[in-house]
UniProtKB/TrEMBL annotation:
Binding site for Zn(2+) 2: C517, C520, C535, C538
EC number(s) on file: 5.6.2.4
Catalytic activity: Couples ATP hydrolysis with the unwinding of duplex DNA by translocating in the 3'-5' direction; ATP + H2O = ADP + phosphate + H(+)
Domain Helicase C-terminal span(s) in chain numbering: 543-697
InterPro entries: Helicase/UvrB_N (IPR006935), Helicase_ATP-bd (IPR014001), Helicase_C-like (IPR001650), P-loop_NTPase (IPR027417), PriA (IPR005259), PriA_3primeBD (IPR041222), PriA_3primeBD_sf (IPR042115), PriA_C (IPR041236)
Key word Oxidoreductase present: no
UniProt cross-references to PANTHER family, sorted A to Z: PRIMOSOMAL PROTEIN N (PTHR30580)
Cofactor entry: Zn(2+)
Gene: priA
Name assigned to this protein: Replication restart protein PriA
Oligomer status and interactors: Component of the replication restart primosome.
TM annotation in the entry: none
C-alpha cells in the first residue's frame, strides 16, 4: 500500500474527513489502520490516526508521512468503524470520536516545539517577543502570539525557525531496575564461599539469592538486606548478579491482599434472572437485558457468574460502574473472583496509571475491565458480555464532545460482538424501563433481597410543621431522637445533604443584598476554610466582605445549608459524636475518598455526613440510621428529570441502612412531603412511581415519549447571542420534517457564564431522521463563527443538563 488515509488532530470542520498521505518506503511495514502518525499539515507537523490504506489517491503530489507514533495499532478495526457511527450519532468531529476512545495520555502524547535556526538578534521583532532568550520553546507560545499561520510558514521558508515535535508517548512507560542472579544456584554458593569475611554485605546479598531466585526490585532488595547499592554493584561487576530494567504496572490496588471468593449458590430468583443471560452467552447473540432488582437483591452475583461463563468461553467482559461507586469495596468483589484477570479504569488514577491499565487490556493480559464511562471503549477484540451497573446514573453520559451515552455504545459494540448487554438498577431510567415493557429490552426482575430482609422503614418528616412548633434547627425532633439512640447503642448514622440546588450564599440581614458573581449571575458560595467567596461556575474568588457593599451594615452573614454548616450544627447538638464529612472539599485529594470510608468502616466515627456521593455503593454493617436533611432541594431544579432524580436518590440512600443483621431506619426531612416522588420512594414503589411519572412525561411530551436535542448558543456579545439563537430557531423551523417541536430560543437558566451570554433551543422529536438535516444546516450556517470561536454552539442529544 502506498497511501494512508489520516484523520488529523484538528477539530475543525473543513478537514473532518481523512487526508491522503504517502507512505514512505521505510514505513510501509509499520503503517496500518489504527496507528498514530505524524504528518505535515501546512507549516505544522501534526498527529493523526491512520484509518485506512489505499493503493492510490485521487490527488497527486501527496506529502509523505513524517513518522509513526505507534508500532502496533492502538485502535481496532471495530473501534475505527465505531468512530464513524459516533460522529454521526453525536455530530462530533471524527478526531474527537477517535480520541474519546483512548486514555488522555494519548491525546497529550506529543508536543510541538519551535527550534531557532538563527541568532535571536536576527529575528523579526514579532518573533523576538516570543523567543525571549530561549532556543527551543513550545509551539503553543507561537499560537498564542500575534504570529499567524502565514508568518510561521515564512519563518520556516526563510530558515529562521524549525518546527519539531517531541513524541512523548513512546517512553511513557515507567521502568524499574530489578536485580537477578546471573549464575546458577550452585555457582552462587561457590562465590559465597570465596568471598572474604570483610565482604559481609555482599555475602548477605548473595544469601538472599541463594534462598530465592525471583528477580527483585533494586529498592526492595536494598531494604530487605539492609544494605546500600555498593555491594550489589560489586556483585554485578563480577558477573554474579545482573541488573535489568522492567516495566512495572502501577497497580492502584496492589497493597490490598484479597481473599479469593467462590461463586455462591444462586437463589431461585437469581437462577431465573440469570438463565436468559447465560443462554445468550452460550448461543452467541446480542440482546439487551434490564435487570431490575432492589439493593441487596443479588445483582452483582449475577454479574459475576455471567462473567465467569464468558471467561470460560475464552471471551472478555466489560463492566461499567459509576465513577463514584468505583470504590475499593466494589472493585475487590471483582478482583476476589477473577484476580489478575481484572483491570480497573477510573478517573482517580493518574494518567500513568490509566495508561498502564489500558495497556494490560490492549496486550490481552486481562480479560475483565471494571471501569467508569470511558471503559466502554476498552480495546478488547472478543467481547462476551457488557454490564452497566446502576444504569440510571447520569455519569454514563459524557458532557464534552463527543456527547455520547455509554449505554448506546454498549449496545452498538454488543451487536458487533454478538453478546448480551446487562443494564442493572434498583431504579431504572424511565427510558429503559419503558423499553423493557415494550419488549425492546428483555426485563429481568429480582423482587426480593437475598437475605429476605425487609427494606428499611422510611419516616417522612414535614419540616414546615417543625418550624411552626418552634424548632429552628436543621434537625427535626424525630431525627434528633434517633441519632441520640444510635449514639447510645454505638451504631452508626449516615446523613445526606443534597447540595444540588442548595448553597451557602451570603446575604445582608439589614437590606437583603446578596453577593452574586459578576460573570455568572449566580450567588457566590462561602468557603469557610479560606474565608472566601467562590463562584462554582467560573471559579472566580473574592474575600468575604466584613460589611455589606450596599448599605455598609455589618450584619452580613452566610446562609443556606452546606455540609460544613451541618457539621457545625452536629457538633453543637451532638457534642460527643465523632463526625466524618465527605464532600467535594474533603475528597478532592487522591485517595481521600477511600480513606474516609475506611475510617468510617473501622468505627472511627459515629456519623458519616456527606453529599450524594455517600448514597451509592457503601455497605457498612453497623449503619442503622440514614437521615436525609433536605430531601426536596432537588425537586425545584429547572429539569424535567427532577422527580426521577429525587426518587432515585432517596431509594438509593435508604438502601444504605440495615444491610446486614441490624434493621435499618430512614428519616427523610422535607418541605414537600406530599410530592409523589418522596412518597413513593418511601414505600419503595418503583412501579407506582413509574406509572405516575410516565403520565407527566406524556402530558408534557418529554422522554421517553419524545427524544430531545438541546442546542446551546453563547456569545460574548448579548445582541449577537440573541440574533444567533433566533437564526438557529429559524433554520430548525424550516428544515425539520415529521413530528417535531421546537421550544425557544430562550435564555438558559444560567444566562451568563464566564462573561458569555447563553441561549438555548430545545427540539423534541420522534425520529432522528426528521432533525438531522436541520441540525447539520445549523452547523454549516455558523461554521465560520464557530471556527473563529466568537460563537459557541453545541448540540446535545438526550441532554441531562439544562443549565
Ligand atoms: P445488589 O448488587 O443487587 O445490591 P449484591 O449482589 O450486592 O446485591 O448482594 C447483596 C448481598 O447478598 C451481598 O452481600 C452478597 O454477597 C449476598 N448474596 C448475593 N447472592 C447470594 C446468594 N445466592 N447466596 C448468598 N448470598 C448472596
Ligand atoms: Zn446591606
Ligand atoms: Zn462566576
Amino acid at each position: 500500500m502506498k497511501v494512508a488515509k489520516v484523520i488529523v488532530d484538528v477539530p475543525a470542520s473543513p478537514i473532518d474527513s481523512a487526508l491522503d498521505y504517502e507512505i514512505p518506503e521505510h514505513l510501509t511495514e509499520i503503517v496500518q489502520p489504527g496507528i498514530r502518525v505524524i504528518v505535515p499539515l501546512g507549516p505544522r507537523k501534526i498527529m493523526g490516526f491512520v484509518v485506512d490504506l489505499a493503493q492510490e489517491s485521487e490527488f497527486d503530489q501527496l506529502k509523505p508521512i513524517t513518522d509513526v507514533m505507534d508500532y502496533t495499532p492502538i485502535l481496532t478495526g471495530e473501534l475505527l468503524d465505531l468512530s464513524i457511527w459516533l460522529k454521526k450519532e453525536t455530530l462530533c468531529f471524527r478526531i474527537s470520536a477517535l480520541q474519546a476512545m483512548l486514555p488522555a495520555v494519548f491525546k497529550a502524547a506529543y508536543e510541538k516545539e519551535v527550534w531557532l535556526t538563527e541568532e535571536e538578534q536576527l529575528l523579526p521583532e514579532k518573533l523576538r517577543h516570543v523567543v525571549q532568550g530561549r532556543e527551543v520553546f513550545p509551539f503553543s507560545d507561537l499560537e498564542e502570539s500575534e504570529i499567524n499561520e502565514r508568518d510561521i510558514r515564512n519563518l520556516i521558508k526563510d530558515d529562521l525557525i524549525d518546527i519539531k515535535y517531541v513524541v512523548k508517548g513512546k517512553n511513557r512507560v515507567k521502568k524499574h531496575t530489578f536485580v537477578e542472579q546471573a549464575l546458577e544456584n550452585h555457582m552462587l554458593m561457590e562465590e559465597y564461599e570465596n568471598l572474604s569475611a570483610q565482604a559481609k554485605k555482599q555475602k548477605d546479598v548473595l544469601s538472599y539469592f541463594i534462598d530465592q531466585d525471583e528477580p527483585i526490585l533494586l529498592n526492595d532488595l536494598i531494604k530487605k538486606v539492609q544494605t546500600t547499592k555498593a555491594p550489589i554493584d560489586a556483585l554485578v561487576k563480577k558477573g554474579i548478579l545482573k541488573l535489568t530494567k522492567k516495566e512495572v504496572y502501577r497497580d492502584p490496588f496492589e497493597h490490598k491482599s484479597m481473599e479469593p471468593s467462590e461463586p455462591l449458590q444462586l437463589t431461585p430468583y437469581q437462577e431465573n434472572a440469570i438463565e436468559p443471560i447465560l443462554n445468550s452467552i452460550k448461543k452467541t447473540y446480542y440482546q439487551t437485558y434490564l435487570l431490575h432488582g432492589v439493593t441487596g437483591s443479588g445483582k452483582t452475583e449475577i454479574y459475576l457468574q455471567s462473567i465467569q461463563r464468558v471467561l470460560n468461553k475464552g471471551k472478555e467482559a466489560i463492566v461499567l460502574v459509576p465513577e463514584i461507586a468505583l470504590t475499593p469495596q466494589m472493585v475487590s468483589r471483582f478482583k476476589a473472583r477473577f484476580g489478575d484477570e481484572v483491570a480497573v479504569l477510573h478517573s482517580g488514577l493518574s494518567q500513568g496509571e490509566k495508561y498502564d491499565e489500558w495497556r494490560k487490556i490492549h496486550r490481552k493480559e486481562v480479560r475483565v475491565v471494571v471501569g467508569a464511562r470511558s471503559a466502554i471503549f476498552a480495546p478488547f477484540e472478543n467481547i462476551g458480555i457488557i454490564i452497566i451497573d446502576e444504569e440510571h446514573e447520569q455519569t454514563y453520559k459524557q458532557e464534552d464532545y463527543p456527547k455520547y451515552h455509554a449505554r448506546e455504545i454498549a449496545k452498538k459494540r454488543a451487536e458487533y460482538h454478538e453478546c448480551p448487554v446487562v443494564l442493572g438498577s434498583a431504579t431504572p431510567t424511565l427510558e429503559s424501563y419503558a423499553r423493557a415493557l415494550k419488549g425492546v429490552y428483555h426485563l429481568l426482575e429480582l423482587t426480593e433481597r437475598v437475605n429476605d430482609q425487609a427494606m428499611p422503614e422510611v419516616e417522612i418528616v414535614d419540616m414546615r410543621k417543625e418550624l411552626h412548633r418552634g424548632n429552628r434547627t436543621m434537625f427535626s425532633e424525630s431525627l434528633t431522637e434517633q441519632i441520640n439512640e444510635r449514639l447510645e447503642k454505638q451504631e452508626q448514622v449516615v446523613l445526606m445533604l443534597n447540595r444540588r440546588g442548595y448553597s451557602t450564599f451570603v446575604m445582608c440581614r439589614d437590606c437583603g443584598e446578596t453577593i452574586n458573581c459578576e460573570h455568572c449571575d449566580i450567588s457566590m458560595t462561602y468557603h469557610r476554610q479560606h474565608h472566601k467567596l467562590k463562584c462554582h461556575y467560573c471559579g472566580d474568588e473574592r474575600p468575604m466582605p466584613n460589611i455589606c457593599p450596599s448599605c455598609e451594615s455589618d450584619s452580613i452573614r452566610y446562609f443556606g445549608t452546606g455540609t460544613q454548616k451541618v457539621e457545625e450544627a452536629l457538633n453543637v447538638h451532638f457534642p460527643d459524636a465523632r463526625v466524618i464529612r465527605m464532600d467535594v472539599d474533603t475528597t478532592s485529594r487522591k485517595g481521600a475518598h477511600e480513606k474516609l470510608l475506611e475510617k468510617f468502616g473501622n468505627h472511627e466515627a459515629d456519623i458519616l455526613l456527606g453529599t450524594q456521593m455517600i448514597a451509592k455503593g457503601l455497605d457498612f454493617k453497623d449503619v442503622t440510621l440514614v437521615g436525609v436533611i433536605a430531601a426536596d432541594s432537588m425537586l425545584n431544579l429547572p429539569d424535567f428529570r427532577a422527580s426521577e432524580k429525587s426518587f432515585q436518590l432517596l431509594t438509593q440512600v435508604s438502601g444504605r441502612a440495615g444491610r446486614h443483621e441490624l434493621p435499618g431506619q430512614v428519616v427523610v426531612q422535607t418541605y414537600s412531603p406530599e410530592h409523589y416522588s418522596i412518597e413513593m420512594a418511601s414505600q419503595y414503589d418503583f412501579e407506582a412511581f413509574f406509572n405516575k411519572e410516565m403520565q407527566v412525561r406524556r402530558q408534557f411530551q418529554y422522554p421517553p415519549y419524545y427524544y430531545l436535542a438541546l442546542i446551546n448558543i453563547s456569545h460574548e456579545n448579548h445582541v449577537a447571542a440573541v440574533e444567533a439563537s433566533k437564526e438557529v430557531a429559524n433554520i430548525i423551523a424550516h428544515h425539520t420534517t415529521g413530528n417535531c417541536q421546537l421550544m425557544g430560543p430562550s435564555p438558559s437558566p444560567m444566562m451568563r457564564i464566564k462573561d458569555r451570554y447563553r441561549y438555548q433551543c430545545m427540539l423534541k422529536y420522534k425520529q432522528r431522521e426528521n432533525v438531522d438535516g436541520a441540525l447539520q444546516k445549523v452547523l454549516d450556517h455558523f461554521k465560520k463563527d464557530i471556527q473563529q470561536q466568537k460563537l459557541q454552539l453545541t448540540i446535545d442529544f438526550e441532554p441531562y443538563h439544562f443549565m
